[in-house]
Every structure is written in C-alpha cells, then in structure tokens.
Amino acid sequence: MKKSIMLIAILIGISFNVNAQAMLSNDAGMIFLNKNESPANALEGKRGGFYGNHPLGEAIQNKYDKFLKLYVKYESSGGAYATEKQIIFKRDIYNSINKLDRYYKKALKKNIIPIESIVEDYEHILDVANQVRFYDTNQLEMLISTAKSEEQIIKYYKSIKFEEESK
C-alpha cells in the first residue's frame, strides 16, 4: 500500500516537472505558419543573415537581406543552455532562392551571362520571392521542388504576375 502511494506521488511529481519544462521552453509541439500574418509585422524579431558585399551589387544585397529577414526567424529555446532555433518559412522557396544565388554567382564568375542580365533577372526574382511570402504558394512550391534545372526555376519565377486587388 505504501509502495503504491509512493509510486503515484513520484509519477505525479514527474508529470508536473515535464509540463513545467514544456511550458518554459515553449517547445511543446509543431510550429505552424500563421496564414494571417501581417506583412507590416513580418520583420519584427528577425534578423538578416547576409553580411558583407554581394558580388552582384548593393541592390541585390538589400533585397537578399530582406528575403532572409522574411523567410528565416530565430527563436530562443530557453533553458540552461539557451540556443537559437532557426525556423524557415516556405522551405522550397527559400532553398530555390539560395540555389539561384549560387547559380548567378557562378555565372558571373565564369562570364556565362552578362552581369546586366543577371542583375535584372535576380532583382525581379527576389522581388517576387519577397512578395509571395504572404500568399498561398503550394502550386509554386510544388513546381520548384520538381524543377530539374536553375533555368526552370527562373522560368517559374518570371511567370508570376501580381494584380492589384480592386475594391
């Protein structure tokens, strides 16, 4: 009888301890993207990850930094050894932009594509990526994830058009 009471007390104590840790760390489950997130508040609590000069110029550097601020969020995990957890929104779009960044840098280095053409295309692609962050992009993400080459990814981004909402 005493053993069963003591066992129950220990189990209750362990469950309170586990719940307290889950509440403190704020890491009790999956992270879901809030589709109603306001673009005005999107840059709060985030930081850019691109440091230094971009080989394609300052305009690309600023747009790429904005892209990183929109798509990458850092949260403190709390606890005794606090570390930051990186959360990437719309991973397929994020990965495709990073892939295109590497592609354009290589094309510039090897003089495969003229720099004016690279800058014009990449600026448009970054503008589109920064704008689609707040749209339902399931179809675009599916197309990008199945693309076999960088040229296909570029074609998909160039085909996106935005229309102003009429009131």
> Which runs of at least 5 residues are low in confidence (pLDDT < 50)?
14-38, 40-46
Helix content: 55-70%
Instruction: Tally the helices.
Output: 6
Give the beta-strand count: 2
* Outline: elongated
Cα separation of the termini: 73 Å
Rg over alpha carbons: 23 Å
Biggest β-sheet, characterized?
A: 2 strands, antiparallel
SSE pattern, N- to C-terminal:
HHEEHHHH
The fraction of residues assigned to DSSP E strands is 5-15%
Mean pLDDT: 74
**Overall SS class:** mainly alpha
Strand order of the largest sheet: 1-2
Task: Give structural notes.
This protein is mainly alpha-helical. The protein is 56% helix and 6% strand. The protein has six helices and two strands. It has helices at residues 2-25, 58-71, 91-109, 115-132, 138-146, 150-158, and strands at 72-76, 84-88. The protein has a two-stranded antiparallel sheet with strand order 1-2. Helix 2 packs parallel to helix 4 (115-132) and helix 3 packs antiparallel against helix 4. The longest helix has 24 residues, at 2-25. 12% of the residues are buried. Mean pLDDT is 74; it is low at 14-38 and 40-46.
